[in-house]
C-alpha cells in the first residue's frame, strides 16, 4: 500500500537531487537539467493540486495558500522555461519550490498524518501518481 506523503516526499527529494546536479553542471547538461527540473516541478504542482490539496479541508488545513504558492512557482517555472539557460531565473524557481516543499513537510504534514487512514493515503498516492503522469 502506498503512502501519499512518502510518495510526495520522494518527488520533493528528486527535485532537490536534480537541483544539486544542476548546480554542478555546465553547458548543455545544465540546460537539459534545467528543462527536467521545470517539467518535474510543473507535473508535481499539478499532481498535488489534483490529489492531496483537494482533501486539505478534511485535515483542518486550507490549501488556498499552497495553491497560491503553486501559481507563483508556476509563473517562475514558465519564466525559467522561456530562459532555461538563465541560471538565476531557474535557481529562483527551484529554490522557491524547495522552500514550499519544506514548509509542507514540516508545518502541514503532521496534521495530515494525524487524520489520514492507510486506505485514504493509498488512494491519494494513486491519485497523485496518476495526476503527475497526466501532467507530464
Automatic annotation (TrEMBL):
Which intervals hold domain Hemerythrin-like? Answer: 5-102
Q: Which domain of life is it from?
A: Eukaryota
Report any Pfam family annotated for this entry.
Hemerythrin
Question: Could you identify this protein by its name?
Answer: Hemerythrin-like domain-containing protein
What is the species listed in this Swiss-Prot or TrEMBL entry?
Heliocybe sulcata
Amino acid at each position: 500500500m502506498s503512502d501519499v506523503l512518502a510518495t510526495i516526499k520522494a518527488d520533493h527529494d528528486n527535485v532537490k537531487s536534480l537541483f544539486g546536479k544542476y548546480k554542478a553542471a555546465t553547458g548543455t547538461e545544465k540546460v537539459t537539467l534545467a528543462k527536467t527540473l521545470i517539467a518535474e516541478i510543473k507535473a508535481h504542482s499539478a499532481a498535488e493540486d489534483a490529489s492531496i490539496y483537494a482533501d486539505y479541508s478534511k485535515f483542518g488545513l486550507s490549501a488556498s495558500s499552497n495553491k497560491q504558492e503553486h501559481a507563483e512557482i508556476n509563473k517562475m517555472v514558465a519564466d525559467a522555461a522561456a530562459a532555461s539557460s538563465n541560471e538565476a531565473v531557474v535557481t529562483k524557481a527551484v529554490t522557491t519550490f524547495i522552500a514550499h516543499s519544506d514548509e509542507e513537510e514540516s508545518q502541514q504534514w503532521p496534521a495530515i498524518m494525524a487524520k489520514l487512514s492507510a486506505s485514504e493515503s493509498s488512494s491519494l498516492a494513486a491519485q497523485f501518481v496518476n495526476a503527475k503522469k497526466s501532467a507530464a
